[in-house]
Write a structure and sequence with these properties.
By secondary structure, the protein is α/β, with parallel strands linked by helices. It contains nine helices and seven strands; from the N terminus they run H-H-E-H-E-E-E-H-E-H-H-E-H-H-H-E. The chain has helices spanning about 5-15, 20-30, 50-55, 105-115, 135-145, 155-160, 180-185, 195-200, 200-210, and strands spanning about 35-40, 60-65, 75-80, 90-100, 120-130, 165-175, 215-229. A seven-stranded mixed β-sheet has the order 3-2-1-4-5-7-6, with helices on both faces. Strand 4, helix 4 and strand 5 form a beta-alpha-beta unit. The chain is globular and about 50 Å long. Bound molecules: S-adenosylmethionine. S-adenosylmethionine binds next to strand 2.
Length: about 230
């Protein structure tokens, strides 16, 4: 089971332009389209999306399974619960599931539940890491080191969505770092399904960075999948 670590997440978020890119793109996607209510699944540690997007909605609900100690703006409702278990009994015009799919125990049924909670004509926005660029190559390298085939969540989600009409956007985001040691720490979040192996394999991973990562930037392709019901 993959466990979300808020400290690793905070370290990651401080080092990337990813959240700004995503919020701006999601705002563009939703602009001019009628919507009253939004459900966001998986907050993280700060309302990056809600802060900017909530003003466009009458109701903005976040479902987050960890205990949230951070203060949220008053127009954002928080439901402390697990998406895979919660019973909502209402539907939404927009559902945002950003970088949360990795953590679902049953990705297929959690995704189907998202479509059940969507009003007809409503939109769901999924966000996850793509499998190209530096991120994809590092994941493939790591999977060889641990001798296990790696299944990208991107591929798993596309398989689940194969009967649906999707729109896909790719936004390359950058991780900044001043040393490969720092980059290694920043990327710990992306290996939260193999925390011990990641730490143990640090020398090999640092060697990989030295050979393959140029220009002080590590690129992750952000994949946004938009689907209208
Ligand atoms: C990597 S963070 C992503 C946060 C934010 N959406 C973003 O894109 O930066 C994943 C968040 O999803 C939450 N989460 C994981 N599984 C969940 C579930 N089954 N139901 C609700 N929240 C979940 C974690 O606790 C964490 O806050």
């Amino acid at each position: 089971m993959v466990k979300f670590d808020p400290n690793w997440y905070n370290k990651f978020v401080q080092s990337t332009n990813e959240k700004d890119l995503l919020v701006n793109k999601i705002s563009d996607i939703l602009a001019g389209k009628p919507h009253k209510s939004c459900l966001e699944i998986g907050l993280g540690t700060s309302p990056y999306f809600a802060q900017k997007l909530s003003q466009n909605f009458v109701r903005y609900l976040v479902v987050e399974c960890r205990i949230v100690e951070e203060l949220l703006p008053s127009d954002i409702e928080l439901l402390n619960d697990d998406w895979e278990n919660v019973q909502l009994g209402e539907k939404f015009d927009v559902i945002i599931a950003s970088h949360v799919i990795y953590y679902f125990k049953n990705k297929k049924s959690a995704t189907e539940k998202i479509f059940s909670a969507l009003n007809n004509g409503g939109r769901v926005i999924f966000v996850m890491n793509g499998k190209e660029s530096d991120y994809g190559l590092l994941k493939s390298f790591f999977s060889k080191l641990v001798n296990e085939p790696y299944k990208f969540t991107y591929d798993e989600l596309l398989e689940i969505l194969k009967e649906r009409e999707i729109k896909e956007y790719t936004l390359p985001s950058e991780i900044r770092f001043s040393s490969f040691d720092e980059l290694f720490d920043t990327l710990r979040l992306s290996f939260d399904n193999y925390p011990n192996e990641y730490q143990k394999l640090k020398p090999q991973i640092i060697e990989y960075f030295k050979k393959n990562i140029r220009g002080g930037k590590f690129i992750i392709d952000q994949k946004i999948i938009e689907i209208q019901k």
